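Honest question from a wet-lab person: if I give you the sequences of every part of a complex, can you actually get the arrangement of the whole thing, not just the pieces? Trying it with mine:
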Amino acid sequence: MRVLSGRPDLRCMNTATLGFREPIERTARRVAAAGFGRITPWRQEIDEAHPERAAQAIRAAGLKLGGYCRTDYFAADDAAGARAAIASNRRAVEVAAVLGAPFVVAVVGGLAPNSKNLSACREQILEGLAALVPTLRATGVAIALEPLHPVYAANRSLLNTVEQARRWCERLDPANEGLFGIAVDAYHVWWDPELEAALGRAAGRVLALHVCDWMRETKDPLLDRGMMGDGVIELGRIRRLVEQGGFGGPVEVEIFSRDVWWKRDPDEVLRTCSARMDTLV
Amino acid sequence: MRVLSGRPDLRCMNTATLGFREPIERTARRVAAAGFGRITPWRQEIDEAHPERAAQAIRAAGLKLGGYCRTDYFAADDAAGARAAIASNRRAVEVAAVLGAPFVVAVVGGLAPNSKNLSACREQILEGLAALVPTLRATGVAIALEPLHPVYAANRSLLNTVEQARRWCERLDPANEGLFGIAVDAYHVWWDPELEAALGRAAGRVLALHVCDWMRETKDPLLDRGMMGDGVIELGRIRRLVEQGGFGGPVEVEIFSRDVWWKRDPDEVLRTCSARMDTLV
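Yes, you can. This is the full assembly:
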């Protein structure tokens, strides 16, 4: 396994970890000062009408982009809703290109608001993703399909395992041209009894590795994620499996923690993340 | 698909649905009066030193047993803990035999309290299950392995998909002698993109079908389960898949709902369950 210590190029901070409390310019400076070489911002932090301003601020801080978060949900109850999601997600890809992000993370969405039809909604999502292909080709930006934990299937993502993401990549990008890949987040996939086999088959498709931790007694699966080392995930095992498949990108910290880490001083959070990456990831 | 209306033999009530507010004798009378022909009680409701008393009360109400809930968690940090779980679970099987329950539902438990080692804990669980075989043979009672939703992997069950349960059955009961089978609970498996294929391969192994519903905005994955029809699960689809595999047992209602259904009058809850079974399951 790669050594992460002293390697800013292998250390990426997802801005969600800091709770979106400050403008991206200030966040970027803090992240760089903590020894991270990459940053993954969220759309809500970027003025998408003028993304070159944020791009400049991030460059000025000495950072590169890890990725860009994230797509709007694809499944909708009517055609107008589906078209709006595709239009928004095309814009995310264009903005990612301006920022210099290699990919947009796709959180594909759950069931359409008035639907229970899993297969129809998954098909609608796949059609929406396929509609992005011309923009992906034009920009050189990829889509990193992120399987989310099955607890989010109803309302956030009908893409729930690495194996399912791999199959979607095979369908959307059969020649592996780099249009679609997979964002593996340890929080979402750690429990999967098929994980090792699925990551083996997904070799060459993984674009991102996200880390945080799953607390044994999770109060809220969305906003009670743990700092690396505080929960039950064998983070080293997952990184080893991903790296065995050829992954060479940075390890990205993404922690949604409303009641703990989002209340701490941002520099303390970054220092803690950095120290944990050296020993526990 | 089978018609459930007017078929008490195909309608089973899991007592958790009523929130454990009354003694089993009274619960059994209510359940029978609502048109259910079977009941699945929990260990906390049965005096396991004298299970013949509860057996008599359930028979007197005109009910048969659906199953018996449930095993203690197998994974432990030391050998004494593992032995204690096995001893408790042997006793559950013996009690099930006295009650006349065809199987004990196995909720296998999550990680041992101080472990992060998924594969070691799963192995310990499998060894614990295997240790029950002599008691299963002696009593004729089976173990119904229940895959739980992955949200429970850390603290309640490292068995999380139908396919995983099928593999465990193949290992524990390779000749399919009826020692081990699968309890399919729609709440736990509805999201699984592999569900149809897994249920196809599990044909002949399914011992139980549990229903409730997954609320789109679930507040608490443990105790905020929905009444059939109030959530997003395609219950008819899942029942059809299970019945296509040869399942001929009753459909069992099991709803953990602390803030809604556990506060309602038990007879109202039973009437609602019964009506929903006629049209929505």
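Two things worth pointing out. Residues 227 and 273 of chain B are 7 Å apart (CA to CA). Residues 8-280 of chain B form a domain with the TIM Barrel fold (CATH 3.20.20.150).
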